[in-house]
Amino acid sequence: MSFKSINIIYWLTFLISIVILPLNFGLGLIAMSIIIVPVLIMHVSNGLKLKKIEKYKIAIFISTFNLLIFSLIRPDGVHAINENGLSSLLDVFHINAGYKREYENYFFIFSFILLLFQLIIELRLRKLVKNHTE
Questions:
Q1: Least packed by Cβ within 10 Å: which of 3, 21, 47, 102?
Q2: Measured between alpha carbons, how far is 130 from 134 in angstroms, rounded to an integer?
Q3: Record's superkingdom (predicted)?
Q4: Inter-residue contact 74 to 84 (CB < 8 Å)
Q5: What is the pTM of this model?
């Protein structure tokens, strides 16, 4: 796959993730913002220097799609946890996919694990960028 298409996929999935995150705004997003904001800043920083680490395509793809999956499964809501990112996104298009409350804990735990994994990936990519700058 060419670097240009990797770059396009990277930024497109990032924009989709940024749109999805505030769709189901709630206390969970505010509480997790301690980790989410630095992850997003590092994601942008790494994205601006993708050319330096273009040979690490697998790590870039993992970073790209992990952030999107996190945004889609993160449960939240206005005053109660009543939807996830996917159900919020589908609601914009007037598609009621429903939200299974019996899986609420699994969604939260898995999304938190994905967020921590994303933090680790971004730190590793940042290290690779710094190593290739010197």
A1: 102
A2: 7
A3: Bacteria
A4: yes
A5: 0.89
